[in-house]
Amino acid sequence: MSELRRTRYQSVLYPLTQRKRFRRSEMSEIVGEETSGFVTRTVNEVVRAGVLTTVKQDDEIHYEWTSPNPVVAVDQWIDRRIHGDQVKETPEQERPRERLLRLGAASLSDADLLAILIRVGIVGESAVTGGHKLANRFHEELDRLRDTGLPELRDITPAVTKASYCQIMAALELGRRASESARQRPAEIHKITSTIEATQYCAEKFAYLAGDAVQEEFHIVTLDTKHKPIRSHRITVGTLDASLVHPREVFRPAIRDAAAAVLLVHNHPSGDPTPSREDHAVTDRLTEAGKLIGIVVLDHIVVARQRCVSIREDS
């Protein structure tokens, strides 16, 4: 019986996997002999599982596969649909937690990691099923999970409870903080003595500002007497303004680090690294303030998606 069901599901879904996108009105034509009612029910179930997503265009529903390999995703869905995937039915050594302990977290798929965070699931929807649904829905966009509320996640899978939602959010935040902590450590570099070295350093060290930040952020990198990085400090968040970036706030961490020089860094979320007049004004003001206290402003680097630009070189 299960093989007949498998064959029937495959007869509906395999032809559809040949299209990256298809319209609701053409599903039966693509599939062929199967009844339109069964085709519609099957597609709706696949959508609820997160394997397909819907897009409304020109007053018509279009479907898109959420996985770059829809055939594999379909086979996995069919297996779960026919056999289920309750953790208790999985050999102990193959359960996500046991594999994590045996092989390490890096060996697990996104679905496995999410299943561990969901932990127990609910009656009728296991943690493993929930993990697969979330992984399919947020394929290659796991960062979007951080901004997704509990009701939205529960629409994807009822396995996400208040407790498991808190665990998922806590894990994401801890990962963000760990990444931030790693970025605070100086990159491996001997010293920064030129514009090229400064832009290369910032391109690596502050790459996240070019890709992730939605607001301007102003940072400094403190340097020792040999111009080796000591530490980076975030000073302000928001539009760069000479009246807001006060020398006191900029040089306080530099004095605390016993820095001989500083490298100024800020991003342009627009992607265009061209320094503005305000950028130049901030640079000039801080350079003069640094001279008064004996701390050299080595350069001011603008980080953007296109490239990094030195304000010293732009002047």
From TrEMBL:
Keywords: Hydrolase, Metal-binding, Metalloprotease, Protease, Zinc. Residues 194-315 form the MPN domain. GO terms for molecular function: metal ion binding; metallopeptidase activity. The keyword Metal-binding applies. GO terms for biological process: proteolysis. It holds the Pfam family RadC. PROSITE patterns: MPN, UPF0758. Belongs to the UPF0758 family. PANTHER family: DNA REPAIR PROTEIN RADC, UPF0758 PROTEIN YEES-RELATED. This is MPN domain-containing protein. It comes from Allorhodopirellula solitaria.
